[in-house]
Amino acid sequence: MSDEAASAKKTGTKRYDRSIVEGPLAAAVWKLAWPTILANIIGGLQGVIDHALVGNFVGFTGNAAVGVSWQIFLVVIVFISSLFTGMSVLVARFAGAGDHEKVDRTVYQAFLTAIILALGVIGPAGYLLAPRLLGLVNASAAVQAEALPFLRTMFLFSLGMMIFFMLSGALRSAGDAKTPMRLGITATALNILFNVVLIRGLGPIPAFGTKGAAMGTSMAFGLVGVYSLYKLLMGGWVISFPKHEGFAPDWTIIKSLFKFGLPTGFQGIAMNIGGVLLLGFIGSVKNGAEAQATYAVSYTELFSFVTWTSTALLGAAATIAGQNLGAGHPERAVQGVGVAARIGLAGAAFIGALFLLIPHQLLGIFGMHDAIVLELGTQLLRVLAVSGLFITVALTYTGGLQGTGDTKGPMYISIVSQMLLPLSICFVMQRLGTLQPIHIWLAILAGHMTRCTLSVIRFRQGKWRAIKVDLGSAPAHG
């Protein structure tokens, strides 16, 4: 190793939190997870408040509109987010090895690629295709009327959210989970403030209704994005933009981003397409609008109390596994993922108990008092109380796989478990002429159980131990 390389590694070792690869595992997992759990819960309250405001000022058609719009928006946005998974693989591995130069090069190239795609593809294409996309989910005319302006606003002004997602993934992979928490809480506070005003109106500001929720979200993340860009340029975080390498694309890094990120992108697209098609099945049953509103609140919002925790643990497991593999400690990676799964199970069991004990009270928060909606919502929450135990384990082991660079395994698993299996169940029941909401709810449970089983098996096979990553030398600049 050259003197320059040794000096860089020494600087990187001091720069990153070494307790992730050297200290007690439970403490390391919790240190990474709790800021993200808190940020996710507070951020999720934004969605709860959006649905509550829209439900009380617009009605359950507004709830359904927000639900179907987010499902469609995520199908598209997840492709860009897949680049951040590729970035996180590289950042965690290089941070574990103490190589801060490669970390910063990776972060900048991910930012550059994502910003071009967000401005050049998502905005214009999403605006034009929004009406056709809404037609895929069998939404009623009333729901489509509320959803179209919401969806178009989200597509056109998605850049701030993209910057936030990119930064959060990079910072956590480098071992800093508190900065994304602070950014997330700030964005949530701004979002709630804007949405309270824009959804219902205030003084000279008119009530924008459902569209106001999208406007508030875009404005909040836009402001956070501007501040984050300033910090990346000026320094002060564990990650930053490179100072002396220019701003041109580095195709070696971009190729690696796509290599590790695209499978996660296809995974997310498959899952969300499955979600859109599932909404189509939900809309096709008797009382379809009520069933879609139930799904939007029970699954998208209330079940998020499970997925917020599980997603945070996915990120913690990915960072623990990736950094320890980079540091040459694969067995520690295995143990860390197991610790994350056990924490997730405890949280899912607690939330599931609430679903079983107080379903009407939880649904009532969103202004859902219709008898049919309450019946369907209680039914779905009972199923989700069990489903949460499986999805939290599935997500933590998915994090372990993705963090080490095995992004293809989770892709295949998700396509089978979250798309093919539940949709096949719904299709068969529909062809038999007996499709009911309970069949759809049980299909979701079957998908989560299958994903859990396959994810654990894949991780324990240990093929991720042999995955190599390298970016080569930094490009020369005169």
Structure description:
This protein has 478 residues and is mainly α. The protein has one domain (24-462). It is built from 17 helices and no strands. It has helices spanning 3-15, 19-22, 25-57, 60-96, 100-135, 141-156, 159-173, 178-200, 210-234, 251-284, 288-302, 304-326, 330-357, 359-364, 371-403, 408-431, 437-461. Helix 4 (60-96) packs parallel to helix 6 (141-156). It is globular.
List the keywords.
mainly alpha, 478 residues, single chain, 82% helix, disordered N terminus
Sum this structure up briefly.
By secondary structure, the protein is mainly alpha-helical. It has helices spanning 3-15, 19-22, 25-57, 60-96, 100-135, 141-156, 159-173, 178-200, 210-234, 251-284, 288-302, 304-326, 330-357, 359-364, 371-403, 408-431, 437-461.
